[in-house]
Amino acid sequence: xxxxxxxxxxxxxxxxxxxxxxxxxxxxxxxxxxxxxxxxxxxxxxxxxxxxxxxxxxxxxxxxxxxxxxxxxxxxxxxxxxxxxxxxxxxxxxxx
Length: 96
Description:
By secondary structure, the chain is α+β, with helices and mostly antiparallel strands. About 30% of the residues lie in helices and about 20% in strands. It has helices at about 1-20, 25, 80-85, and strands at about 45-50, 60-65, 70-75. Strands 1-2-3 form a 3-stranded antiparallel sheet, with no helix packed on it.
C-alpha cells in the first residue's frame, strides 16, 4: 500500500513539474525548422531579411523572408547562399 501511495505522489509531482516548465523550451515550432529547400538562386532584391533555423532542427538552414510576405528555406551550405550571406540582413526580432 505504501508503494502505491508513493508512486501516485511521484506521478502527481512529475505532472506539476512539467506544467511549470516553459512550454516553448520543450517544443520547437515547425515555423523554426525547414524540411524543404529552394534549389534555385533567389534574387537578392526579393530577400527582405533572413533568420536562422533553430539549433534543434535537423538541417542548418536559413528562412528567407521575401517580398509579398512569402518565406523560403535555403541550406547554408549552398554556394550562392554563402557568397551572398554578407549582403543579407537579419530579421529583427518581434517585440513583445
